Amino acid sequence: MEFTKAKKEISSYIIQSQEEEIKRIALELHEGVGQTLYSVYTGLQFIQGGSLQPEMKNYIHEMEQLLEKTIQEIRLLSVELHPPTLATLGLVPAMKSYLKLYTSTYGIEVELSMVGEEVPIPENHNIAVFRVIQEALGNVAKYADTTHVSLSFTWYPNGLGIIIKDFGKGFNVKEAMEKSTGLAAMIERMDLINGKCEISSVIDSGTSIELFLPL
């Protein structure tokens, strides 16, 4: 029992240290690289407006589109690394903000629903739950081959229940658990905050991830 407790404390400390470094990198991406690229983007727009050659206009337009896509990807990456609204507004508002960028980047619609009234939870719990949902949605974008996901939050008197359900091609959970550190990390993150993460999937029918966090 003592060994398990010590292991949890060490894991929590490592994750907390990682989150602090991630926060710093996210800020540099947003305020440094992102702002620089946006300046280049507006400069290209100015050059395009003054160009008379159709070939040059087309070339500049292609560069604008590439830059715009890159800026969007950096914005998503920055939010993925550290959602700025998570600490100030809470889990659900931060997730709504993230989902807008997620959909515009991957073209996957996420149907968000909520039952009950959101209550404040500790920051480390917020981060852990956000990271697990983030990992789940990232896996959907990479592997599920679907354009639709449902995400539900249910606030109970004794806890928070979350279900992430995609309607993609599914996978063999046992085989994936042996190969994927991401799935194991999801379960471990929830365990560190005394929560649960259950993963089920059916080939050609999709995947369901159910989380429960006691409050």
From TrEMBL:
<dbReference type="InterPro" id="IPR003594">
    <property type="entry name" value="HATPase_dom"/>
</dbReference>
<keyword id="KW-0067">ATP-binding</keyword>
<dbReference type="Pfam" id="PF07730">
    <property type="entry name" value="HisKA_3"/>
</dbReference>
<keyword id="KW-0418">Kinase</keyword>
<dbReference type="Pfam" id="PF02518">
    <property type="entry name" value="HATPase_c"/>
</dbReference>
<feature type="domain" description="Signal transduction histidine kinase subgroup 3 dimerisation and phosphoacceptor">
    <location>
        <begin position="23"/>
        <end position="86"/>
    </location>
</feature>
<dbReference type="GO" id="GO:0016301">
    <property type="term" value="F:kinase activity"/>
</dbReference>
<dbReference type="InterPro" id="IPR050482">
    <property type="entry name" value="Sensor_HK_TwoCompSys"/>
</dbReference>
<dbReference type="InterPro" id="IPR036890">
    <property type="entry name" value="HATPase_C_sf"/>
</dbReference>
<keyword id="KW-0597">Phosphoprotein</keyword>
<protein>
    <recommendedName>
        <fullName>histidine kinase</fullName>
        <ecNumber>2.7.13.3</ecNumber>
    </recommendedName>
</protein>
<keyword id="KW-0808">Transferase</keyword>
<keyword id="KW-0902">Two-component regulatory system</keyword>
<dbReference type="InterPro" id="IPR011712">
    <property type="entry name" value="Sig_transdc_His_kin_sub3_dim/P"/>
</dbReference>
<keyword id="KW-0547">Nucleotide-binding</keyword>
<feature type="domain" description="Histidine kinase/HSP90-like ATPase">
    <location>
        <begin position="127"/>
        <end position="215"/>
    </location>
</feature>
